[in-house]
């Protein structure tokens, strides 16, 4: 599995029954929760083994609490998950005056779960449509996963969409200078510059010589 990949639980053998897969504090350790089948659970970090069984260490998309302890990470048997490449759509923050919070959990009850803040028109990332409590789960363009309120997202590219470092968003129009350099080449531009300077020097030299000849004393 690739570090940073989204993981999803597999569908159980019985298609008519919702099955659950346990989450652990460590490989073969205490069970601290469970996840339904066919559910995006989080981001893959690494693999560890215990008694010939591989466990995936996962940064949970939705942290859980067990015995008053909050867990952002947990282990799950690797055989029940797979790297998830969603048939996903790309979304942006809607235009307007307000920025939007990206959260680690699907709730706005606390500011402690804010991962980052995105400006209007900014690229959020991709989603397969997973929602909870009015929030949509995203694979973020900046990396990782996060929840964003459905009231502030749009799949339509805003007219003022902000460019992104990886090129997934609209790019600004290049300046005239940049276009010229890309078309002609910086090396050729430098050569033309020095040729022009040389021609000017020659012309100035000829003018000075002409003036000297005109005013030179005649013997």
Automatic annotation (TrEMBL):
This is SH3 domain-containing protein. The chain crosses the membrane at residues 194-212. Keywords: Membrane, Transmembrane, Transmembrane helix. The keyword Transmembrane applies. It comes from Spirosoma arboris.
């Amino acid at each position: 599995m690739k570090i940073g990949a989204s993981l999803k639980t597999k569908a159980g053998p019985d298609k008519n029954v919702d099955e659950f897969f346990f989450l652990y504090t460590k490989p073969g350790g205490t069970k601290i929760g469970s996840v339904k089948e066919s559910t995006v659970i989080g981001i893959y970090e690494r693999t560890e083994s215990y008694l010939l069984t591989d466990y995936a260490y996962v940064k949970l998309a939705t942290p859980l609490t067990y015995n008053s302890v909050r867990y952002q990470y947990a282990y799950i048997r690797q055989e029940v998950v797979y790297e998830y490449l969603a048939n996903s759509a790309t979304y942006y923050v809607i235009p307007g005056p307000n920025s939007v919070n990206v959260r680690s959990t699907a709730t706005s009850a606390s500011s402690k779960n804010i991962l980052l803040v995105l400006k209007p028109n900014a690229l959020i990332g991709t989603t397969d449509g997973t929602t909870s409590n009015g929030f949509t789960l995203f694979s973020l363009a900046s990396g990782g996963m996060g929840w964003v309120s459905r009231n502030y997202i749009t799949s339509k590219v805003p007219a003022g969409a902000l460019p992104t470092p990886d090129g997934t968003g609209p790019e600004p129009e290049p300046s005239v200078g940049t276009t010229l350099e890309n078309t002609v080449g910086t090396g050729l531009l430098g050569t033309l510059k020095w040729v022009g300077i040389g021609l000017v020097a020659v012309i100035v030299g000829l003018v000075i010589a002409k003036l000297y000849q005109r005013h030179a004393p005649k013997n």
